[in-house]
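Weekly structure sync, notes
Attendees: PL (lead), two postdocs, one rotation student
Agenda item 3: pending single-chain targets
PL asked that the sequence for the first pending target be pasted directly into the notes so everyone works from the same version. It is reproduced below exactly as submitted, 352 residues in total.
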Amino acid sequence: MYGLSTKYAYSNTRVKSMEFFLIKESQMATILSSKDNSTILSTLMQTDYSKSLSDFGGISIKQSLIDFALSKNLAEHIIILLKITPPEDKSIILSIIGRWDLHNLRLAIEAKGRNLPYEQISRYVIDYGEFNHLILKEALKEDNLEKMFQHLSKKSPHYSKLINVAEKSYLANKNIYSAISAMDISYYKLLEKTIALLFDRKERATRILRKEIDSRNILTLILAKSKNKTFNSFQENIISRGYMDLEALRKVYDSSDSIEALSSKITVFDLKGAAALYKKNKRLLSFEVAMKNAIFNMSKKAITQSVLCLTSIISYVYLKEIEVSTLRILIKGKEYGLTKDELSELMIWKGA
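Predicted structure, written out during the meeting:
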């Protein structure tokens, strides 16, 4: 116990402090009920986002710069997490926050595939690590996507195999979304190793990561069912290490004749509410929102109950990610005139 105290006392104290400054349920309710983005900004200026927003104009920030401020805030918190993580655990945390490296790579691939300049994606870039804004801006100057892949691979030996997988998939059919999907699968396969390490250490965070893999696999099943695909046609896209193994997923899929029937047989998540919403609006997003909310609740409980371990840091990663995603949804929703009820159905956050 003394060794754990020496190793994790500082990082756990810091991350608990960071958790305190996550947006509170009352604040998110105020944002949801806001009539416009000016009101939302007034609320956010009273939160941890105040400094990032002030850097781009504060309460008078231009609509086009709000995403820059959210991305900046997220990047700053990622950097803090890396700094406070004990050195021997950095590889584990790097594998988990690799989700944002992947996010930046997706942006670059889609931009290049659609011949968009860097400026079109810059507001969404999480400016940290091996694919920061300078790296991506330079990579997008390459003549074509193949050269961009090669450029990024040289800049990041850590992700070179993953980038090569994406390039190979793209060259097979010249489809950028195939490349992105192949890259995602490669990332989750890397995450399997992290789950194994955390399981050996009896970290509560193992449950969160396994549920994330379950959610991804379930969404794969739901999307495939909406297109009437056979299980064998997408089996290679299933990721292992979730609570539902390949055969369990196959059994659920093959025994269901509709999305509603499939969702009713899922036991690792409660999808009854999502199924009811889907019946009303026919949005597959309802299922993703339900599972994200479940992962949020797991992360919240884990960060509250875990002491002197790595789980606190990992839980915060999920809480912060969902918070920023929700703010983007609410701000964009207000911009496009969505009602409070419509936004409530899209919220992947239920209060910190």
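Discussion points:
- The chain has 18 helices and no strands.
- The chain has a mean pLDDT of 94.
Action: rotation student to compare against the earlier draft before next sync.
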